[in-house]
Write a structure and sequence with these properties.
The chain is globular and about 45 Å long. The model has no long low-confidence stretch (mean pLDDT 95). With 161 residues, the protein is of the alpha/beta class. A five-stranded parallel beta sheet has the order 2-3-1-4-5, with helices on both faces. Bound molecules: shikimate-3-phosphate (S3P).
């Protein structure tokens, strides 16, 4: 079974995965390859619901594998995904307050983050708030990364496991 890293955009899921395993998998990267376009283009052409279905299918494929996975921030929105996440060996939740995440996000406006282009700050904060209990519900481990770099988060993880 996979070990997965969850958390809102900007929490440093992929950066932590890079520090923990050279052979980690990144769901956003895999989806862009599968879909043959950037996530921004996919959202624009097919909409978010269709993206969520593709993300769900990929999660199903990855879960049985013995691999570290950096998920996309919206993985917890589907109940079917939360059900799958409960079966994983470990679910590491990278938690931070919204303002910290937002500051990081505006410095790193990537094409795999259509929501950042489509939503105003207050809408993003609503999305952030709506997901908190879902992240907490499926996490087996929570690391507060508000004041940690990805390297520090990796050291913290290694020394506390
Ligand atoms: C999303 C987060 C993104 C990506 C997509 C949707 C979200 O991943 O999956 O843009 O709904 O929060 P990151 O959390 O890796 O930026």
């Amino acid at each position: 079974m996979a070990r997965l890293i969850i958390g809102f955009m900007g929490a440093g899921k992929t950066s932590l995965a890079k520090h923990l395993a050279t052979d980690y998998l990144d769901m956003d990267d895999l989806l862009e390859k599968r879909l043959g376009m950037s996530l921004s283009d996919y959202f624009a052409q097919n909409g978010e619901d269709s993206f969520r279905q593709e993300e769900h299918l990929l999660l199903k494929d990855l879960l049985p594998r013995d691999v570290l996975v950096a998920t996309g921030g919206g993985i917890v929105t589907l109940a079917e995904n939360r059900q799958l996440l409960r079966q994983a060996d470990e679910v590491i939740y990278l938690k931070a307050d919204f303002e910290t995440l937002y500051e990081r996000l505006i410095k790193d406006n990537s094409s795999h983050r259509p929501l950042l282009q489509l939503k105003a700050k207050d809408e993003l904060e609503k999305i952030y708030n709506s997901r908190q209990s879902w992240y907490e519900e499926v996490a087996t481990r929570t690391i507060d990364v508000s004041h940690l770099t990805p390297r520090e988060a990796a050291d913290f993880y290694k020394h506390s496991s």
